[in-house]
Design a protein that fits this description.
The chain is mainly α. The chain has 28 helices and 4 strands. It is about 70% helix and about 0% strand. It has a two-stranded antiparallel ribbon. A two-stranded antiparallel ribbon has the order 2-3.
Length: about 700
């Protein structure tokens, strides 16, 4: 479905925060010089980097077993310093130096992560990694009868890949943010949140057991809430943060119940032990809802919330209310892939439940279609990328559902490069246009911001699956996995999604960069390329988007997953690369034909299929349905049933009824209290006569 820009609803400035909370170029004008702190901090920045890298090198040489904890705790150290001394740093005008401190902690973690991965690569074949337990502060974290949880980290092939993604892409996004947020007065708070998020994300992927993973899981949810609502004075941003927080809590119910049932089934929540024990269990039959299937489905519910899968996908597009680097870090490259990581980590368990595998594959495929089709009609450049992220996450779960867990991690890895590149590229466009995000008010920008344009094109070609780029290898592997698993319907749907992806991304490139400029003259006169502190990360991510697919991630992570993906390692059909490439090329050519060669055609298509276009614009009605449930069922039920029915009629009725009975009895009894002695004497005489009569009768 194609919608013409003249008929699509206008979208506001997603980052049109008040001037006091606006990023670079947003409400601050153009060409403003950096504050004095940025120019006056180079020696402080240099000294900070020297100290951080020096300490990291000393740890690496002297205490190699503590390195994973250093990787984890360095971002927490950065958060602690910025949180405790943020006001003083701001008062001294050293906000930019504080930003570089945050960057330094993550860059040092990345350097240590590279060294750790090198060490992991020296493990003998079949080794699933080491449990690193802090040697000086080691302790048993939880001890409650048979339920015991160690405070331990797991470093193996799978967690190594995730750590590299989190610290590598994360450090580039930190550096990019230095330029993007340079005019925001609250950037110290912003960078403290980024560091805190990095800590919790590292805890999630390094945690050696499900409870420790869960702490990181909840931590990144908290940081997502804080960063989405960073410009909290803007109601839409505050509402988006709350929406993300609430939807993720629904998924977390499933995750908690899944952990409880897993402990009841296995007697442990250690990740390595869970995978090892799973290999000794008998596979359940299709549609048999035994304990393994129940555990897997409950855990998958948690993954649906965190990774924005149907029906818990509605929070991610609204999360674009946060600063654009936040969208790149949390809602493209790291946090939203946590669900994929957890399912892949427990792949040996999922492989024992054909029912759970089928549910994962179908939900993933349906989400991929939903995200791709809604992206066709979006006019906000960040919303296009948001729904693209939903779609690509569905691709990853499709891979998990057909048993290609290593391939899912492969696409997670390549997606981190090109989706972070696209989000940061969109941020560069927004920066150039002073906060404008509506693609209908863009166009003709490729000559004005050439570095942004060419890096954005590389990211677009990578996600489209053009041969030679990263997305080509991982997408083909997913489609091949669907064929090898005997799921031709999923293969065909996946191929269609690949075509749609190429189409809507090319549409975004054309509307944003090609043709003629369609915005107002005032904004057009200030269009400028971003500073190199923002362009440098774009160039590095573009290189990763080009060559990331040549790294054999599936083979590397296979020992950690223990599913025996050799069953899915057969050569793909010889025609598959040609068909997949043809789908991508067709999508690109159709977008070129409709939006550049003959731009009047989309309006006709929109007019002839207005009903379908409105369905897509209304996001298939999910938001409207949930709003109705929230307003009528939750709010209405709370008022009519819980308040008027239970509280007022039952509880208040019982309390007030008891008081009424007591008052009625009191009113009846008080009639005998007349204050006359003769009346009381008569009552006493009557009582005496009654007692005497009773005694005589008994005799």
């Amino acid at each position: 479905m194609v919608a013409h820009s003249n008929h699509e609803p206008a979208s506001g400035h997603d980052e049109g925060a008040p001037a006091a909370h606006a990023p670079a170029g947003h409400g601050a004008g153009h060409g403003h010089p950096p504050e004095a702190g940025f120019a006056g901090s180079p020696w402080v920045v240099l000294l900070t980097f020297i100290l951080l890298f020096g300490a990291g090198g000393w740890l690496l040489r002297s205490f190699p077993d503590t390195v994973p904890f250093a990787i984890l705790l360095l971002p927490l150290l950065g958060f602690t310093v910025l949180a405790l001394f943020g006001d003083a740093i701001r008062d001294q005008g050293e906000g930019a130096g504080a930003c570089w401190l945050a960057c330094g902690t993550v860059l040092t973690s990345f350097a240590l992560a590279v060294a750790t991965v090198y060490r992991v690569m020296q493990f003998p074949a079949g080794d699933t990694g080491l449990r690193f337990t802090q040697p000086y502060l080691g302790f048993e974290w939880i001890a409650a009868g048979p339920f015991r949880v160690q405070m331990n980290l797991l470093v193996d092939n799978l967690s190594s890949v995730m750590v590299l993604v989190v610290t590598g892409v994360g450090s580039l996004i930190h550096i990019y943010s230095v330029g993007y947020m340079s005019h925001d007065p609250d950037r110290v708070r912003y960078f403290s949140y980024l560091n805190l998020f990095t800590f919790f994300m590292l805890l999630l992927v390094l945690g050696g057991n499900l409870p420790l993973l869960f702490v990181g899981w909840e931590g990144v949810g908290l940081c997502s809430y804080l960063l989405i609502g960073f410009w909290f004075t803007k109601k839409s941003a505050a509402d988006a943060g709350k929406k993300a927080f609430i939807v993720n809590r629904i998924g977390d119910v499933g995750l908690i119940l899944g952990m409880i049932l897993a402990f009841n089934l296995f007697g442990t929540l250690d990740l390595v032990d869970l995978v090892s024990n799973a290999t000794s269990l008998t596979e359940e039959s299709l549609w048999q809802f035994g304990p393994i299937t129940t555990v897997c489905l409950l855990l998958f519910l948690g993954a649906c919330g965190k990774s924005a899968q149907i029906p818990l996908h509605v929070w991610l597009p609204d999360a674009m209310e946060g600063p654009t680097p936040v969208s790149a870090l949390i809602h493209a490259a790291t946090m939203v892939t946590a669900g994929v990581y957890m399912v892949a980590r427990l792949g040996a368990l999922y492989s024992l439940s054909p029912t759970a595998m089928t549910v994962v594959a179908v939900i993933g495929t349906a989400t991929a279609v939903l995200g791709a089709t809604i992206a066709l009609v979006q006019t906000d450049i960040k919303k296009v990328l948001a729904y693209s992220t939903v779609s690509q996450l569905g691709y990853m779960f499709l891979a998990c559902g057909v048993g290609a867990f290593g391939v899912a991690v492969f696409h997670l890895f390549t997606h981190a490069f090109f989706k972070a590149l696209l989000f940061l590229g969109s941020g560069s466009v927004i920066h150039a246009l002073g906060g404008e995000q509506d693609m209908r008010k863009m166009g003709g920008l490729w000559r004005r911001i050439p570095v942004t344009f060419w890096t954005f094109v590389i990211g677009t070609l990578a996600i489209a699956g053009i041969p030679g780029l990263a997305g080509y290898f991982s997408k083909d592997a997913i489609l091949g996995g669907a064929l090898e698993a005997g799921r031709p319907v999923l293969f065909v749907v996946g191929l269609i999604v690949a075509l749609l992806t190429a189409f809507y991304m090319t549409r975004a490139v054309i509307l944003t960069f090609l043709g003629t400029y369609r915005g107002d003259a005032e904004t057009g006169s200030h269009i400028h390329e971003s500073p190199w502190v923002m362009l440098g990360p774009l160039v590095i991510l573009a290189i990763g988007s080009a060559v990331g697919g040549y790294i054999e991630i599936p083979h590397f992570v296979e020992p950690a997953i223990r599913v025996g993906e050799g069953a899915h390692a057969a050569p793909h059909p010889i025609w598959l690369p040609y068909v997949a490439s043809a789908a991508a090329i067709i999508g690109i050519l159709v977008a070129y034909y409709l939006y550049l060669a003959f731009p009047e055609i989309p309006s006709r298509i929109y007019a002839s299929a207005r009903g379908l276009a409105r369905v897509l614009e209304n996001k298939y009605g999910f938001d409207a349905l949930y709003d109705r449930i929230a307003s009528r069922v939750i709010v209405g039920g709370s008022e009519d049933v819980l308040w008027r029915g239970v509280d007022v009629r039952l509880i208040d009725g019982a309390v007030n009824g008891a008081a009424s009975v007591a008052a009625a009895v009191a009113r009846s009894v008080r009639t005998v209290q007349v204050g006359l002695v003769r009346a009381y004497a008569l009552v006493i005489l009557g009582g005496a006569v009654a007692v005497l009569s009773y005694l005589l009768w008994r005799r």
